[in-house]
Hints:
By secondary structure, the chain is α+β, with helices and mostly antiparallel strands. It contains seven helices and nine strands, in the order ααααβββαββββββαα. The chain folds into two domains: 55 residues, no CATH class; 156 residues, CATH 3.50.70.20. It is globular, with a radius of gyration of 20 Å. The relative contact order is 0.13. Heme C binds next to strand 3, strand 4, strand 7, strand 8 and helix 6.
Amino acid sequence: xxxxxxxxxxSGALGLVVACSGQGGGTQAASAPAASSSxxxxxxxxxxxxxxxxxxxxxxxxxxxxxxxxKKPGNWREWVYVGSPLTPNGLNGGTAPFPEFHNVYVEPTxxxxxxxxxxxxxxxxxxxxxxxxRSNNNAENxxxxxxxxxxxxxxxxxxLELAVKDTGRFGEMPGGWAYFSFGHKAQPYEASAEAxxxxxxxxxxxxxxxxxxVFTQFYPVIRAAH
Length: 226
Ligand code: HEC
């Protein structure tokens, strides 16, 4: 995805492609050609700027029900996978709030924007899927003995959360970030979710996350991207 976005960016086609693949974020796909056609003095640099700003406007945004509830993304496992923090029960006195692996995925157009700018664009979506530790001849700390050694492997899916940055829609939330859960349970997950109050989720992210409410310090793929 990373390579193909860069290829598209240099060919000027990104805005159109993203507009087609997003879930409702593509209403202004045609602005780049108009801007670049007026660039007669320095065509190369002006064209690049026009394409970049067009791309920034085309973050694939979340879908919403008329009630305002966010829809579960359709394809989060195809987004950019950035890391899997793990806080197992075995290392937390048996009572970790999230004892599963936390597999985190960034929606590709938002990832591309971050890669380029170091900022989370309006419309950014980040999914966190919880995956149980694979149980297999468990030792005291919940680890398993596998051919690769003693440690933790992933078992079954156990929940899905979503973070969305949208200051227009969630202006009352610090930083414009709203947080959702489609269930802390096995699949099927819920089809939609209401935003949590700011104190339930947002406050901890505000206090401890490295980059605009996002825990970039725990995601090697994001650290490497910008
Ligand atoms: C006590 C602190 C804390 C609270 C409260 C909290 N989170 Fe998080 N959240 C984290 C940490 C730490 C991470 C980094 C990844 C990990 O370890 O799971 C994270 C990561 C995330 C991510 C991935 C994107 C990112 O910002 O890194 C989502 C989505 C998320 N949390 C959703 C929620 C939701 C929904 C709630 C409220 C129900 C919530 N969080 C409450 C600490 C918190």
